[in-house]
Sequence to fold (236 residues):
Amino acid sequence: MMASLDDEIAAFNEMKGALEAKHHGEWVVVHDLKLFGTFQSFQQAANRALKTLGLGPYLIRRIGASPVPLPVPILYSLPDGAN
Amino acid sequence: MARTEFTYPSGQFPTTDKRDLLAFCGPTLEVDIGLDQKYDPDRPAVVPKLAQQRVRALVDTGATASYIDSQVARRLGLPQIDKETVTLALGGQQIIVTYLAHVHIPSLFFTLVGPFGGLDLRPLNVAAVLGREFLMDWKLKYDGTTGVVTLES
Fold:
C-alpha cells in the first residue's frame, strides 16, 4: 500500500537527526518511507520528484528549517475557530 | 529586464482612483496557477500549461513565504508535499498543508516553482499571496502617492 504524506513525515522524523548533521539547509525528498534524495534548492528537489515520482505522495522539506509564522494580514482572514 | 506595473480589479470598489485602489486591494498581479509536469525550469521561455488562468495574487511584504487558496489547490489537484503546525503571528497555532505548484506571471513572463502553504484566501479576494521569498529576485517600487507599484528584475 502506498505511504501517505503523514507516513512520509513520520519517516522523515526518524531520519531527521542524521539529515541535520550532514545536510542542514538543503531540501529533502522522502518517498515510500525512504530517503529519495537531498538537493541544494527547492526547485531542484521539486523537479526531480515530479519527473521521477509524479504527483506523489512524497514529502519535500528544508532540513533544519522551522515552520514559518503566518503573516498578520492573512490572520485577519482566518475563519472563526481556525486556530 | 523584466518589468510590470501592478493593476487593480475593476468593479469591486466604488472608485477608480489608483491611490484608493492600492490602499483597498494592495499590490496585486494577474497570475496563472497549476502544475505542469512537463514544464522544464531550465527552459523558462516555454510557458507552463496551467489550469487556473488569470486570477489575482497579492504581493505581500509582510509574508515570509507564499500561499495559495486551499480551495483552488484542492480543485486543481495540486500535490500535498508537507504538513506542519505553524505558530500564528498573533499567537496560537494552525496546521498548514503545503502544496507544490507553478505560478506563472504573464506580465513578467516568469514562472515560480514553489512550495505554497494552503490558506483560505477568499476574504482577501486573491488566489495566491507572494511573500518575501518571491521578492528576493525582484525590485519592488511602491508609490502610494500615485498608486503606481512596479516590479522589475
Summary: The beta strands of chain A are 27-31, 34-39, 59-62.
